[in-house]
Amino acid sequence: MATTNPTKRSARSASSNSRSGDAKSTPAASKTVRGVDKDAPLKEDIRLLGRLLGEVVREQEGDEVFEVVETIRQTAVRFRRESDAKAGAELDKLLKKLTRDQTNSVVRAFSYFSHLANIAEDQHHNRRRRAHLLAGSAPQPSSVAYALSRLDDAGVSGAQVRNFLKDALVSPVLTAHPTEVQRKSILDAEREIARLVAERDNPLTPKELRHNTELLRARIATLWQTRMLRYTKLTVADEIENALSYYRITFLRELPALYDDVEAEIDSQFPSRGKSRAAAELPPYLQMGSWIGGDRDGNPNVNAGTMQHALKRQSTTIFDYYLEEVHTLGAELSISTLMVDASAELQKLADASPDHSDHRADEPYRRALIGVYARLAATARALGVVNILRQEVGAAAPYAAPADCVAELEVLVASLQANHGAALVKPRLAGLKRAVEIFGFHLATLDMRQSSDIHERVLAELFAKAQVENDYAALSEERKVALLLGELSRPRLLYSPYLDYADETNSELAILRTAREIRRRYGERAIRNYIISHTETLSDLLEVLLLQKETGLLHIEGNQLKELELMVIPLFETIPDLRCAAEIMRGWLTLPQVKPLITKQGKLQEVMLGYSDSNKDGGFLTSNWELYKAENQLVELFNEAGVKLRLFHGRGGTVGRGGGPSYQAILAQPPGTVNGQIRLTEQGEIIASKFSNPEIGRRNLELLVAATLEASLMPHAADGKEARKLAEFERVMEELSERAYRAYRNLVYETPGFTDYFFAATPIAEIAQLNIGSRPASRKATQRIEDLRAIPWGFSWGQCRLLFPGWYGFGSAVSGWLEDAGNAKENARRLATLRAMCKEWPFFAALLSNMDMVLSKTDLAVASRYAGLVADRKLRNTIFGRITDEHERTSALLSSITGSKERLSANPLLARSIKNRFAYLDPLNHLQVELIKRHRATVAAKRTPEERVQRGIHLTINGVAAGLRNTG
Length: 968
Fold this sequence. Notes:
Elements (H helix, E strand, L loop, with lengths): L31 E2 L2 E2 L2 H22 L1 H20 L2 H12 L3 H36 L8 H10 L4 H10 L1 E7 L8 H16 L6 H20 L10 H34 L7 H4 L8 E2 L13 H29 L11 H8 L12 H19 L19 H17 L6 H15 L5 E2 L1 E4 H14 L11 H12 L14 H20 L6 E5 L4 H13 L3 E4 L2 E5 L2 E6 L2 H16 L4 H6 L3 E7 L1 H7 L1 H22 L2 E7 L11 H6 L9 E7 L1 H7 L2 H20 L6 H29 L5 H8 L2 H5 L21 H10 L10 H10 L4 H17 L1 H16 L2 H8 L5 H26 L9 H33 L6 H18 L4
Parallel strand pairs: 3-4, 3-13, 4-5, 6-7, 7-10, 10-11, 11-12, 12-13
Antiparallel strand pairs: 1-2, 8-9
EC number: 4.1.1.31
Cofactor: Mg(2+)
Subunit structure: Homotetramer.
């Protein structure tokens, strides 16, 4: 909100590496070269957006509010940058003096500044990446070109790469969780601001520059006048629409384009001999997934109706895109057979079109596309799509499957390529054909998820009503397995349409029947996965098999199981569950009844690993280590069984929930765990951060492909020396994990009053009141940490700037291990081992890198203000004292291991970004504390809470989340 005049733009500096999406920048990205500050354009953008926001605040709220905001800004900057204690006291005094109306204006101003700073940073990442590409230097690390170059150097052939991608599946899965605090209206306005900021990088006349500035000011004014918060609870339908907006912005165009880029890079690195480009095209190895509308775990608002609605809206979105593209192609491909020949196949396709106009008799491409449009429109209507924007010329039969549409588009492609029209394929037709291959008629695969205890209750009722077993839940595991296998071998059903069942049972069966219908209507890729939360036993998997049998999704011949429509996928979440994962899967893979089902799945089985609950259960270090061990054990087991393993990583936004750069996370996986098959969740506000800008979205999709190629195909050293070194590293990690686990559990679960401290010293209660998700914050109506969902657990610690789940326990583990060395020489040897682990072991390096980033965002001074919300002084001092001590230990030991005293020394651009925005986050945190005090005092006095105070708290939550970015 500074009033500094923006520097006029001329030519932008060009060349450097950049951080795009979640990619790391290199140290060179933030240095000056030949006196040119590469970050100068970023600073200009931030100054410009801040000045325009200040002008809007002055105009909308008046001079007095503007002056208050500006004074707070300047004081906060001085306090943060100069560590001025006097400025800190002055800031505190300023914030306490604010009236209620001023408070909300100040909160909105600083919140919007965080949003605008994010826009400027995203644009700068794009700018630096383009500059790097224009400079024509070596492939950027983490790009597909770089990965292919490394594979080539390692002796991997082009044939191996192409064959690998033919069987690969890389799938980002969008999920809706209660950390996405942005309204779609806000996101739409911000996308327009981002477009205008990007436009300023082009050569503009003075008049065009003025016009651009005026539009920016208008869009920021729109932003200011748009309600930031929802006044009603977000519904599942709202979450579906929010997710679909990212398809229109990014995925529909960028995903097909990425395929073209990858194929071009493969052709460049590994030129194919004697193959046409069409023959070299690869199947859709990168596909989108979604949980929104199908994830029932802990969300009573998801049912058969939401699944139907999700697929209908997904289908509408993709058909709208196809129809618009085909219509545009019809205008572009005005090719006349009076000028150039067309293939007989194309002529046949044109003759089958409902278009018989004499005006287009010599234009077979247009006539063929009119036929394609008519068939697509008929298909859309058959699938429930309404409001086709342009009426087709005449009636046509709908497509039976997406492959039929692809085949007709291929006729156009082949004819153009054979008749001097190859240049006309790529601009639009190739992308459209590729889009149909990727998205089909369903857009994204909708996963189903439910908790194992729900399945048990449903089957308990079915068994009891069928007079098979009166108390299924009370049976031992062995008897459950025997009963389930026995029922699976019998062709008759347990369910009877003539009996009454509980609502829960009826709902669960209806959902599975709906899944069957959706697969028939939209294709098998529409729904193909069933995920079981809280998988603890083999019977948890068999129960879902039996439920599929009851609803026609498991096909049986005689007493043999033949084919399963929905893959049964266990989700191992807690530390005990992860430790049992391999044993449970051994039982599953060796069951004679299950083996033919896995064979029918292509000898492939997916396993999902939960990062969130394992962290909440055992802490950051232990969670990461137990996940690593579980993966290794599963790889060994699956190799023995001759079954391909696909791991589904349930990663959240925060590092404590598995977040952090996706590229580094994939490369840090144990050898053999990726193998061309990987799915991972994209959650909360991370979706907006990664995919609301098309260029950054494209970059993040490329990261997934590049990392999967490297992790899967790069040869791994396997000599005895390396194996012994890895074994030593793993032995050390096992001991550190055990120590970290004890330290974490002792504080969180064994210290009296910790739960009270958490609920008092974080805004968890206020977060639960926000209309930011359709899912409750807790699985049960309790205040037990065990029952709290891991998402608001991590989100709350982020709000109070402790980010506790991302580092606690590390310091105690390492210090204890070093102290137990017994003598100085052994202590030095152990420290040297930790340093070697950091340099030579990708798993440990990624763990420390993520912890480094979390610690850079942690602020004990701000956190101490939240600790002041705890009324019990003794409890406050005890808990916060222990957290402070652990923070000091962790920070000191991290520096000792990495050799870097400063946080993020390897990523100075991110370090500077965090440091600069802290000055604007501080007022939000301080105001949040003051507002929480007022609100809780009102509630304690049993008075009606003030709406403006509650709104102010929720606005600060929004602003802090935007400022920290990966908080979900």
